[in-house]
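This part of the workshop introduces the protein records we will be handling. Getting from the letters to the tokens is the skill we practise here. An example says more than a description, so a record of this kind follows:
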Amino acid sequence: MTLKSDNKIFVSGHNGMVGSALVKCLKKNGYSNLIIANRKELDLLNQKNVYNFFESNKIDAVFICSAKVGGIHSNSTYPYDFIYQNLMIQNNIINAAHLSDINNLLFMGSSCIYPKLTSQPIHESQLLTGPLEPTNQWYALAKISGIKLCEGMNIQFGRDYRSLMPTNLYGPNDNFHDLNSHVIPALVRRFYEAVVENRKSLDVWGSGKPKREFLHVDDLAKASVFLMEMDKQKFNSFIKPDLSHINVGTGNDISIEELVSIIRNISKYDGEILFDDSKPDGTMKKVLDISTITSMGWSPEISLEDGLFDTYEWYKNNEDTAKKV
């Protein structure tokens, strides 16, 4: 069973970066019967509330975009929150979907599921082949559990629960918190504030040498709908029951130093850039092998330069709202 235009589709985390992009993409593709709920309306950490929500709404398909997310500082500071809350959110939604006899579900993971030291580009088969990056292992363990929960449902109950592992994401509605955000939103905010406040210098965490792959959230949304619209027989011809997760990214990486240079040009900041190598770099290189999803017929469309310009402009026009995230 694939998505149909009249399906009642639940998008969890619809106010976040991924969820809001997905809602926009679904509407653009003709899906108008979308089910959404904010945190006051639905506590995803409460199993009973989630089950009752599913029962009362008669949902046909699910996109799990809700998660507790953050950068190196946030993961290192709140390790229990990251593993507990993410496990509870995904377990409650996946189990409620199963109990409500929903066959179509997409679980959104992260490229941090892969070992810290592994061959590049990273293929799906490299999951669980080595130790995780210590700075985000708590989040990664939760996401790995989500993949395996979906695989278990498919093997034991014949469900069609799919898992998508995006590379580093960015775009409108990201978390632009000054300490708890990922690298692109953190840099966008710092450069914007440096320009507005006419600062003479700007500090950047780390050496600038690590290389990362970045995907605009609108490309992820298109990939998500693309995968959920694919019929089960065709989808299963590309994956194995016990290796069902699929990477999504651009297949290209860039150094943090180069990234800083692009955002600097977009912001027109002319001060000094100071790299603070006393701060952790994390993994030195990480780029995904996206051959599985490209062989299915999907490819990214938004260039990094265009996406960064779009993100910077969005932040500039939504500064007050963005800072509250």
The chain is about 45% helix and 15% strand. The CA atoms of residues 69 and 82 lie 7 Å apart. The domain at 9-323 is CATH 3.40.50.720 (Rossmann fold).
